[in-house]
Each structure stands twice: as structure tokens, then as C-alpha cells.
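Example (one chain per record):
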Amino acid sequence: MNVKNLRKNYKTLSLIERHSLFISAIMRKDESEENAVVSASPVKLFEMPDFTHLYSKVLSLLMIVMIHKADAWTNWQLFSEMETERAEKHSRLALYFFYVYADAWRAVCEKLNIDADAIAEMMFPSCFLLQRIVFADESLRKFAFTETEAREFIGWCIGEEKFAMTLEAKIKEFCDFLELPHG
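Predicted structure:
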């Protein structure tokens, strides 16, 4: 089957499938494929393919995730340099927050059938901070609180059991932001 015949089937793909193809084409720098996906989009809004809104929201969410991961990583660095038991717990909590954002982002990217690392590299090519965050992502997970430990520490710090920073809650929040169906 040649490329032209394959592209005829693009019109039958879902919004998420076309979006995934579009991002993959951008990452490969395949302008011909980008144009084919755009042309196959059945509904156009203001002369834009139907997945443009989703694409914009995905890039916005990536920025939000990177900011929160950078904040958590910075907090981890700050607290890990202090030599008290409480600072150590705060550093472990910061890592927990880091991994909740990282894992929720990966889960949402899986739902969208896009490569989380590739899209981050596309948005931030050769970024020093991104490289440092990738290092943290790979090497510090064993030091992070578990959800139970984070819940207990937050409860101890603020004196109540209110705890909303779970992986499941963050995935739901991200899916809601992207207006994705649940399930």
C-alpha cells in the first residue's frame, strides 16, 4: 500500500488519532504528512483543522506540567540541602509532587498516543532545565514519598486529612482540561 492510499483513510480517523499523527509529523519534520493530516480533518473551525484546539491545549498543559515539575524539583533541591528531619520530609514531598505531575502527564500522553518525551523535546530543544528534570525523573523516584506517606505528612503539617494531590486526581484534572472523554 502506498502513502497516497494510506492518507485516503485519514478522514476516518478520530480527532485524537489525527492529532497524534499531526504531532508525530511535526516531530519528524514531515511537512507533507502535516498537510495531509490537516487536509483530512472533516471539520474546520475558522479555516483550521478540528484538532487545533486540542493541540493548543496539549501544548498549554505541557507548559503547566513543566512549570510544576521545575517548581517541585527546585523545592527538592532547596530542602535536600538542609540537614533537618523536617527538611528531609519536605524534600521527599517535593519529589512526590514532581512524580505525580510526571506520571499524570505520561498517562495523558498515552491516552493521546503521543510520546511525552518527544513532545517536550520538540517544545524545549536542548533545554538545560529539561535535561535536569529528565535526570531527576530517572534517578530520584526512590527517595520520593509514596502517596500514603505524602498524605500522612500533609495531615501532620496542616492538621487535617484533606489531600487532593493523587495521581488519579491529577490525571482526571488533565483530562478535564483537555476535554477528553473519561475512561
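Caption: The beta strands are 44-45, 48-49.
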